[in-house]
Design brief:
This protein has 360 residues and is α/β, with parallel strands linked by helices. The chain is 41% helix and 20% strand. The strands form 3 sheets. The protein has a 10-stranded mixed β-sheet with strand order 2-1-3-12-11-4-5-10-8-9, with helices on both faces. The chain binds nicotinamide-adenine-dinucleotide. Nicotinamide-adenine-dinucleotide binds next to helix 1 and helix 5.
Length: 360
């Protein structure tokens, strides 16, 4: 029996819809395993700008720091996507949250449920058995460096910066994970042209000497982009910088069938934040068709990483597996060629997971 306080931060768009399912799963786990979970909620993103004028209100930050873990949805609104001149933007809330909470490691497991082999646009024989754990650095790089315009606004610049300690701490997390897996680590950079990448490679090579059992490979990011699709099974743990990780993990989402299937954990010095890798998906917001499984699997990551509740996490993964085996699909993971698929909306998909969870 454990007592945990969880902050739910749904944010914008389908973030609201999928975290509602995530919370029900937390409730089901508390009941089944006799834990006590208490909840609070807070605003971030567009919804926070509308209510308070800022994308990350101070009260949200305080509640995050006080919680045992945060279940996060997504931020974003079409209004800002089409207005590059907007000074206050939803994603500023996300970046500030990462910086303020010291969330320097974004962990993204990329694993295909066997039942979804036919839902990916990649051939099943290439995909089967792929199991990758991504470590994306989250608080440095071009996203956080100096940025601006000069020459009357006709020239723009973004400075990429990394310090030795920032690279070392994420590298160590990745090496430790590799020790508990297949003992293979691929570090991705662009050391042939970028100075921050040269420091990245130097530091990873140094850290590697502390983990002699782990086989280390250094790859240029362009090669990784190609190899992820050509031969995803060659990867075990992948560690990379913020920008490269952002792009490669979205690409890798196709290995798992859909963005709607991929969960992530952001961890660091304080409270861990657990969220789907997808955004607020304006195109399907309010239609009740978003896939909630990435949020459900984010809950499993929270239980495992922040609370050390491995059996509880495995119960969730097992329930998702059973639901998929039974043929239930949201639209994004349905295969038009498979007539046995039973297409469900967000809430119904959540209810199927709850049914299997209570039956375990
Ligand atoms: P997106 O991830 O929101 O959507 C990309 C595509 O995937 C869309 O067609 C969408 O319908 C589909 N999709 C995403 N999640 C799904 C789910 N759970 N079920 C079914 N289909 C799903 O990315 P985008 O369209 O590039 O961006 C939309 C907004 O989200 C933008 O404002 C962007 O800034 C924001 N965004 C936020 C985050 C975040 O909060 N972490 C991440 C990425 C994008």
């Amino acid at each position: 029996m454990a007592n945990k306080h969880i902050l739910i931060v749904p944010g914008d768009g389908i973030g609201q819809e999928v975290t509602a399912v995530g919370k029900k799963v937390l409730d089901a786990i508390a009941k089944k395993f006799n834990h006590q979970f208490t909840y609070d909620s807070a605003l971030i993103g567009h919804i926070a700008i509308e209510a308070t004028g800022t994308p990350l209100p101070e009260i949200t930050l305080q509640k995050m720091k006080a919680a045992d873990a945060v279940l996060f949805g997504a931020v974003g609104h079409p209004k800002y996507d089409n207005d590059p001149t907007a000074k206050v933007r939803p994603e500023q809330g996300l970046l500030k949250m990462r910086k303020e909470l010291g969330l320097y490691a974004n962990i993204r497991p990329i694993k295909l449920f066997d039942e979804l082999l036919d839902a990916s646009s990649i051939k099943p024989e290439i995909l089967k058995g792929a199991d990758i754990l991504f470590f994306r650095e989250l608080t440095g790089d071009i996203y956080f460096g100096e940025k601006g315009r000069k020459n009357n606004g006709d020239t723009a610049y973004d400075v990429a910066e990394y310090s030795r300690y920032e690279i070392e701490r994420i590298a160590r997390k990745a090496f430790e994970a590799a020790c508990n897996r297949k003992k293979k680590l691929c570090s991705v950079d662009k050391a042939n042209v970028i100075e921050t990448s040269r420091l990245w490679r130097e530091v990873v090579q140094q850290v590697a000497t502390d983990y002699p059992d782990v086989a280390v490979e250094h790859q240029f990011v362009d090669a990784t982009a190609m190899l992820l699709i050509k031969d995803p099974k060659r990867f075990d743990v992948v560690v990379t910088a913020n920008l490269f990780g952002d792009i490669l993990t979205d690409e890798a989402s196709q290995i798992a069938g859909s963005m709607g299937m991929l969960a992530s954990a952001s961890i660091g010095d304080g409270t861990g934040v657990y969220e789907p890798i997808h955004g607020s998906a304006h195109d399907i917001t309010g239609k009740g068709i978003a896939n909630p499984l990435a949020s459900v699997l984010s809950v499993a990551l929270m239980l495992d990483i922040s609370f050390g509740m491995l059996s509880e996490a495995n119960a969730i993964i097992g329930a998702v597996d059973e639901v998929l085996k039974a043929g239930y699909r949201t639209r994004d993971i349905a295969n038009a060629a498979t007539v046995s698929n039973k297409i469900l909306g967000t809430e119904q998909m959540g209810n199927e997971v709850l049914k299997y969870l209570s039956a375990l």
